[in-house]
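RECORD TYPE: inverse folding
INPUT: structure tokens
STRUCTURE:
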């Protein structure tokens, strides 16, 4: 945009009715006076006649004569909604307000000192495929608003209290983790971070809930016209059991006064917040299998502690630019996967692998099957999070797999050295005591907490397997815990019992580069052996021009052993092509059992571990 922003178009509002069924706005949150003395007040308007956008009015009380406003950059998902912001236009009772765009997501405001109002409009573009639940969006039945997608903030006033009034279509309800007030239309927050970390589920909602230790947990469901009935009682019961297992893990200590589960039928994905979570679940899927969402629900709820209240140092604070890469995502995400499986077992809910040893064996198989996991350290894999495709060259390690496997190893190591008296729970609890949303941890802090729980020195282990790329020989690492591990490699077979084709051939699209781009994955894959590289733009596959990823996948998916794959990519000023004859490939099979020489103490340790105690 140019120097002075354009005025947001006027929005004709329907009757304004904001109500929460079953007292949803008062679930455990102390009400505060409506329109309390806030440094910043927002009004967010939803027009039923135009659900493509929201209009926002931002009044800054006692503003200086010269300041900046910006749109928050979320550390996990930057959806760049500044691309869809029209405005802002400013006004003041004391004179002219000038708004100048300084970069993509920041604006410079000059105005007479005093109260200043900025008005802008944020368009919510529809997604081409299934709705991503963490993105702001609206449908005739409702949607998700607020969060980092809707609110500008004034730099230098990030900790000032704010108020938000929501004007919505008649009959729509609003559920959010924000503090409620005596006005059902208005919410409050002690600063910008809780404001943008508390999205609002709006629309015609179904509402349930449960209590744990006098803490209220709300469960809201936004349906869709094609939705189907499912067992809502079982969903709420499962959430109750998962939450109780997590609360017990942290000795009953929770970092919130109330909690909201925000569900949307037909959307996909999830995003955790300080006292709420947004989750997409297709109602036909949960109707067919009520256990379908349990791993994701356990994972996201555990994030309330490990990734939101306990977060890497680089993620502390509000910013409008991307944070520096951080090496702790293996812990924040991968170890959370470890706990998701553990919570389901502690809650006595169905899991994919009937025993913990089977689950660990499958996890080690996944780690071994991707050579990139052995070639890039978990810390370096973590630093590639949210960075462009190809930042690690032709390698694609998974910090999820690396972290979950490390979580198991560290847990068993702590149990072995402490003679079964302590576990990874003790390290996790220690970190939540030492760090917070105000003070983040580093990789060295993780090591220190694990060492304290273990009562041992793990510097060599962290140097080799967290900061370094030494191979994780599970048989050696788990021997002190009384386990024995055997690995064999076998050809991968198809449903017909014959060798399956090696189709570890991927491509994707990027916001920063045009076209369909190769993702080579690892040196052992067919394209890597043929000399192709990640981020090379695909021009054609077997003579068919490639305009989208779906076409690429369809052509690759039709290949059989013995077929020749011809991929033409752009390279430099020319092209590159080398025929690839599709062959078979092998995957590891892992078996884990108790070592016959295990001591009685080791057998007791394993009994407790297998029972998820």
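DESIGNED SEQUENCE:
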């Amino acid at each position: 945009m140019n120097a002075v922003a354009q005025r947001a178009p006027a929005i004709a509002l329907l009757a304004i009715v904001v109500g929460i069924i079953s007292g949803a706005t008062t679930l455990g949150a102390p009400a505060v006076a409506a329109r309390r003395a806030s440094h910043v007040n927002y009004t967010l308007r939803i027009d039923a006649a135009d659900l493509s956008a929201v209009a926002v009015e931002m009044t800054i009380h006692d503003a200086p004569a010269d300041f900046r406003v910006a749109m928050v950059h979320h550390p996990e998902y930057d959806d760049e909604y500044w691309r869809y912001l029209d405005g802002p236009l400013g006004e003041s009772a004391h004179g002219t307000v000038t708004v100048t765009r300084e970069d993509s997501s920041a604006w410079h405001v000059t105005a007479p000192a005093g109260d200043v109002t900025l008005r802008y409009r944020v368009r919510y573009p529809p997604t081409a495929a299934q709705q991503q639940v963490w993105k702001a969006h609206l449908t005739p039945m409702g949607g998700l608003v607020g969060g980092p997608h809707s609110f500008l903030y004034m730099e230098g006033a990030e900790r000032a209290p704010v108020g938000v009034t929501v004007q919505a279509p008649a009959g729509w309800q609003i559920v959010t983790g924000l503090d409620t007030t005596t006005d059902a239309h208005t919410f409050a927050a002690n600063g910008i971070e809780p404001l943008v970390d508390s999205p609002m589920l709006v629309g015609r909602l179904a509402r349930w809930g449960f209590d744990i230790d006098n803490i209220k947990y709300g469960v809201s469901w936004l349906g869709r016209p094609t939705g189907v009935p499912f067992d809502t009682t079982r969903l709420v019961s499962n959430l109750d059991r998962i939450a109780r297992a997590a609360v017990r893990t942290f000795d009953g200590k929770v970092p919130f006064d109330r909690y909201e589960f925000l569900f949307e039928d037909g959307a996909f994905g999830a995003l955790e917040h300080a006292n709420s979570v947004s989750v997409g679940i297709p109602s036909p899927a949960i109707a067919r299998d009520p256990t379908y969402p349990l791993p994701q629900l356990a994972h996201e709820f555990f994030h309330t502690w490990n990734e939101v209240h306990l977060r890497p140092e680089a993620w502390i604070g509000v910013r409008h630019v991307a944070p520096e890469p951080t090496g702790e995502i293996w812990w924040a995400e991968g170890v959370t996967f470890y706990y998701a499986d553990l919570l389901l077992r502690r809650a006595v809910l169905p899991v994919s692998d009937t025993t913990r040893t089977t689950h660990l064996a499958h996890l080690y198989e996944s780690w071994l099957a991707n050579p990139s996991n052995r070639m890039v350290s978990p810390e370096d894999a973590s630093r590639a999070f949210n960075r462009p495709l190809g930042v690690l060259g032709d390698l694609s390690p998974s910090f999820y797999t690396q972290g979950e496997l490390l979580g198991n190893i560290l847990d068993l190591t702590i149990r072995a050295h402490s003679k079964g008296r302590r576990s990874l729970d003790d390290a996790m609890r220690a970190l939540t005591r030492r760090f917070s949303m105000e003070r983040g941890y580093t990789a060295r802090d993780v090591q220190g907490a694990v060492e304290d729980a273990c009562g041992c020195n793990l510097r060599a282990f962290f140097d080799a397997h967290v900061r370094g790329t030494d191979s994780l020989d599970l048989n050696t690492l788990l021997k002190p815990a009384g386990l024995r591990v055997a690995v064999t490699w076998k050809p991968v077979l198809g449903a017909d019992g014959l060798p399956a084709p090696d189709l570890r051939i991927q491509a994707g699209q990027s916001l920063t580069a045009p076209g369909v781009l190769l993702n080579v994955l690892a040196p052992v894959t067919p394209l890597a052996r043929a000399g192709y590289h990640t981020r090379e733009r695909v021009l054609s596959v077997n003579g068919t021009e490639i305009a989208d990823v779906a076409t690429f996948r369809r052509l690759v998916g039709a290949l059989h052993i013995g077929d020749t794959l011809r991929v033409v990519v752009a390279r430099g000023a020319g092209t590159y092509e080398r025929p690839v004859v599709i062959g078979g490939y092998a995957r590891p099979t892992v078996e884990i059992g108790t070592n016959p020489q295990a001591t009685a103490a080791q057998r007791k340790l394993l009994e407790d571990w297998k029972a998820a105690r």
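NOTES: DSSP finds 16 helices and 30 strands in the chain.
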